[in-house]
């Protein structure tokens, strides 16, 4: 933390005040004790009168306006030595003074000093002075750093990070795997640098660009690259920073942001996670959020109101485009909507080349191998993959990243941390049959994905795992492919039934059965792949403001619902029977594969296919 007089005062002011009051109480008590000559010896008032009658009292000093007396006495009980004893005097004892005079006792009265009152006065004056001085200093420091009326009075001001020349350290060459989106923004940067090329043919600069895509695909990274390439003022803010507890603060911040942007036009305004402020208005149970809706209204007005926002390009990013307000998505506000999707093979290879620049990877490893083994990985997943591999390499004290670290990093990201290996027992053999059941069905079915690895090493919540390599194109899936996936998911349970019998079937297939039911239901209700006909009976899109389950209302009769259940049952039963038949026909090879898996604990996909090809005449996928 950097040194700051403001931080020093914030930490030291409470300490000074507390220390002062502790010192004041201690000092005042000390003065009071010294003035009263307090002794350790005490005596009751009745005993004092007895000493007085016996003539043992020699001197009496009265303090505290007659409430306390210090008595000097001598007698046999006191060791025949003069001792000072403290006596608490009653409030009404007028005869005491006369009695002391009759016995010729040396009497002296000591008036109370006003020292305590003096220190109380100083303390009461010093505390407000310290408090006022500290507040004045803090306000002055706030004014000097913000140029405004201080933080306490500036909650309506925009919190956007403003840079005249944004030096993010990232340019378009550092962005890979999203070439289409990059081309869109390269055009915008060209528009900002050389607008005459476009204005000559009547083209207008787009007012807004919305980046839509899953998390980790590079939306924010692309915005940083725009900031590094554009050489124009760049405002960066998160959508959540507009919304506060007080109604009207968000709208005030939007006005302040666009006011600053207009003063520095042409410029770029980047709003990350715009769904925090741009949700549909008037939604949700019980109405919407007034503060958020006012903020959105102000944003809509600033982007394309009466005044307009000439020279300001608004770039926003979200992974929840389904909840954005329709007025925000129309042309004139966000003229372009750019989809930033999960990269394909070429995109993954380009991303790996970017993130591998500062990694020591074994020269024998081809990045294309890693790219082919990671379908479905986003840019953030690939960056995390190489980082995890580098961490594992450093942990093993190796000089470069090898394929083993890459494999282990992929397994860790997909399935979790490695657990304790299973001991050789009935449970381990049952898990081996379960995983081999999945793998052999996936290998023998032509429409199923290829087996990548079978392992008995626990990861996360799974006791064993079978990995399949997903195909690149997952947008269109045929009926035969879905049924192959259902049969592959049922392979583990089918192997348990054939080998161990119904009585020994375990709960290990619970997650598999959930997937089976879900796929079969989608075949019937969404894809029209049943005897009910080509009907879409359930909509994938639901109202996110009511909750996914609350919004899923059935749009069909009870009779159709019964037919849906029957069709789902028939599909699963048909796939289950075919799966059991395959397991029975290949029992010999399954037993062989189980023995190998128990011995080695992990079988690679290619090795698995080579073993099967030795025992069957069915063409094996490569």
TrEMBL record:
State which Enzyme Commission number(s) the record gives: 3.4.24.-
Q: Which Pfam families match?
A: AAA (PF00004), AAA_lid_3 (PF17862), FtsH_ext (PF06480), Peptidase_M41 (PF01434)
Obligatory cofactor(s): Zn(2+)
In terms of SUPFAM superfamilies, this protein maps to: FtsH protease domain-like, P-loop containing nucleoside triphosphate hydrolases
Q: Main location per UniProt?
A: membrane
One GO term (biological process): PSII associated light-harvesting complex II catabolic process
- Gene3D superfamilies xrefs: 1.10.8.60, 3.30.720.210, P-loop containing nucleotide triphosphate hydrolases, Peptidase M41
Q: Where does the record place it? A: Cell membrane; Membrane
What protein name is recorded for this chain? ATP-dependent zinc metalloprotease FtsH
Subunit comment for this entry?
Homohexamer.
User: What sections of the protein cross the membrane?
Assistant: 7-26, 116-139
Q: Which InterPro entries match?
A: AAA+_ATPase, AAA_lid_3, ATPase_AAA_core, ATPase_AAA_CS, FtsH, P-loop_NTPase, Pept_M41_FtsH_extracell, Peptidase_M41
Gene it is expressed from: ftsH
- Describe the task this protein carries out: Acts as a processive, ATP-dependent zinc metallopeptidase for both cytoplasmic and membrane proteins. Plays a role in the quality control of integral membrane proteins.
Please give the PANTHER family that the UniProt record associates with this protein. ATP-DEPENDENT ZINC METALLOPROTEASE FTSH 2, CHLOROPLASTIC, METALLOPROTEASE M41 FTSH
Can you tell me which residues bind Zn(2+)?
434, 438, 512
Q: Which UniProt keywords are listed?
A: ATP-binding, Cell membrane, Hydrolase, Membrane, Metal-binding, Metalloprotease, Nucleotide-binding, Plastid, Protease, Thylakoid, Transmembrane, Transmembrane helix, Zinc
Per the record, its GO cellular-component terms are: chloroplast thylakoid membrane; plasma membrane
The UniProt record lists the AAA+ ATPase domain at 205-344
What organism does the record attribute this protein to? Membranoptera tenuis
What topology does the record note for this protein and the membrane?
Answer: Multi-pass membrane protein
């Amino acid at each position: 933390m950097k040194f700051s007089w403001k931080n020093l005062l914030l930490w030291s002011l409470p300490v000074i005040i507390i220390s002062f009051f502790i010192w004041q109480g201690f000092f005042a008590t000390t003065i009071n004790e010294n003035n009263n000559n307090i002794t350790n010896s005490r005596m009751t008032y009745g005993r004092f009168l007895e000493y007085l009658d016996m003539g043992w009292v020699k001197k009496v000093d009265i303090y505290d306006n007659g409430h306390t007396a210090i008595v000097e006495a001598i007698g046999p009980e006191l060791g025949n030595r003069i001792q000072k004893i403290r006596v608490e005097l009653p409030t009404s004892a007028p005869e005491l003074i006369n009695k002391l005079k009759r016995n010729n006792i040396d009497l002296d009265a000591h008036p109370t000093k006003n020292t305590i009152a003096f220190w109380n006065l100083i303390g009461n004056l010093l505390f407000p002075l310290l408090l006022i001085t500290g507040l004045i200093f803090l306000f002055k420091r706030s004014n000097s750093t913000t140029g405004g009326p201080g933080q306490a009075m500036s909650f309506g001001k925009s919190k956007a990070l403003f840079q005249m020349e944004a030096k993010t350290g990232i340019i378009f060459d550092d962005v890979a795997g999203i070439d289409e989106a990059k081309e869109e923004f390269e055009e915008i940067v060209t528009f900002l640098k050389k607008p005459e090329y476009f204005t000559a043919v009547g083209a207008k600069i787009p007012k807004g660009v919305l980046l839509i895509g899953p998390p980790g695909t590079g939306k924010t990274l692309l915005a940083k690259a725009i900031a590094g390439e554009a050489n124009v003022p760049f405002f960066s803010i998160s959508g959540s920073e507009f919304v506060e507890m007080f109604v009207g603060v968000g709208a005030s911040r939007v006005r302040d942001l666009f006011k600053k942007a207009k003063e520095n036009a042409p410029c770029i305004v980047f709003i990350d996670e715009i769904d925090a402020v741009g949700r549909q208005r008037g939604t949700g149970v019980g109405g919407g959020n007034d503060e958020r809706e006012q903020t959105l209204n102000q944003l809509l007005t600033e982007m394309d109101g009466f005044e307009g926002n000439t020279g300001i390009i608004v770039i926003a990013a979200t992974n929840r485009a389904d909840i954005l307000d329709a007025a925000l998505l129309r042309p004139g506000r966000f003229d372009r909507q750019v989809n930033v999707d999960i990269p394909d093979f070429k995109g993954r290879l380009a991303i790996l080349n970017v993130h591998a620049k500062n990694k020591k990877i074994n020269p024998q490893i081809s990045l294309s191998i890693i790219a082919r083994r990671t379908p479905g990985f986003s840019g953030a997943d690939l960056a995390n993959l190489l980082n995890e591999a580098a961490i594992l390499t450093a942990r093993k004290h190796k000089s470069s990243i090898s394929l083993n670290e890459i494999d282990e990093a992929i397994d860790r990201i997909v399935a979790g941390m490695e657990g304790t290996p299973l001991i050789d027992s009935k449970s381990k053999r049952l898990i081996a049959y379960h995983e081999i059941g999945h793998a052999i069905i996936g290998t023998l079915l032509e429409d199923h994905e290829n087996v990548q690895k079978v392992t008995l090493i626990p990861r996360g919540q799974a006791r064993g795992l079978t990995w399949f390599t997903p195909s690149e194109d997952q947008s269109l899936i045929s009926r035969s492919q879905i049924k192959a996936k259902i049969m592959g998911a049922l392979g583990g349970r089918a192997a348990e039934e054939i080998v161990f019998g119904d009585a020994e079937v375990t709960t290990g297939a619970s997650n598999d059965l959930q997937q089976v039911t879900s796929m079969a239901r989608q075949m019937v209700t969404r894809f029209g792949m049943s005897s009910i006909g080509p009907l879409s009976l359930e909509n994938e899109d639901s109202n996110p403001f009511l909750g996914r389950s609350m919004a899923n209302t059935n749009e069909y009769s009870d009779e159709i619902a019964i037919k849906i259940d029957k069709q789902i049952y028939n599909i699963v039963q048909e796939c289950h029977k075919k799966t059991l038949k395959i397991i029975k026909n290949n029992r010999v090879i399954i037993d062989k594969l189980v023995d190998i898996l128990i011995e080695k604990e992990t079988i690679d996909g290619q090795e698995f296919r080579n073993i099967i090809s030795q025992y069957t005449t069915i063409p094996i996928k490569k």
